[in-house]
Amino acid sequence: MKTIGQKIEERLQELNLSQKDLADRVNVTEATISRYISGVRNPRGEILSRIALTLRLTTDYLLGNTSIEKNNESNINKKYNDISKAFEKKGLSLEDIDSIEFEKILDMYMLAKGIKKD
C-alpha cells in the first residue's frame, strides 16, 4: 500500500507540479512538503484537506481509507446541489464559505444522510 507521501509525490508528477508549487498553494514551507513525501511526518487536519483539494484527491484516498482517488464529478455536482438547496431553505449562501469549509460541510452532510464516501 502506498504511503501518503508516495500518493502526494505521484500526484505532483501527474499534475506537473513541484513540491514548492504545492507548498505555496497550501501555505506551508517546501521543507514541510518534503517531510510529508519522505514519510518523516504526515499532514493532518486542515493541511491534509488543503493538500487533497489542491491535488484534486479525496482525503480518504490520501489516508488509505479508500482506493478511489477522486470523486466522480457527477456525484460532486449532485451533492453540491443538494447542499445548496438545503442552505437556500435556511436563507444561507454557499458563496459565503471557502472550499475547505465546504469540504467539511460536505462530509457532515454525507454522514448525516448515511452516504458512504466515494
UniProtKB/TrEMBL annotation:
The record ties this protein, via CDD domains, to:
HTH_XRE
What InterPro entries does this protein's entry cite? Cro/C1-type_HTH, Lambda_DNA-bd_dom_sf
Identify the Pfam families for this entry: HTH_3 (PF01381)
One annotated GO molecular function is: DNA binding
Keyword entries, A-Z? DNA-binding
Leader sequence residues: none
Fetch the PANTHER family from UniProt: HTH-TYPE TRANSCRIPTIONAL REGULATOR XRE (PTHR46558:SF11), TRACRIPTIONAL REGULATORY PROTEIN-RELATED-RELATED (PTHR46558)
Q: What is this protein called?
A: Helix-turn-helix transcriptional regulator
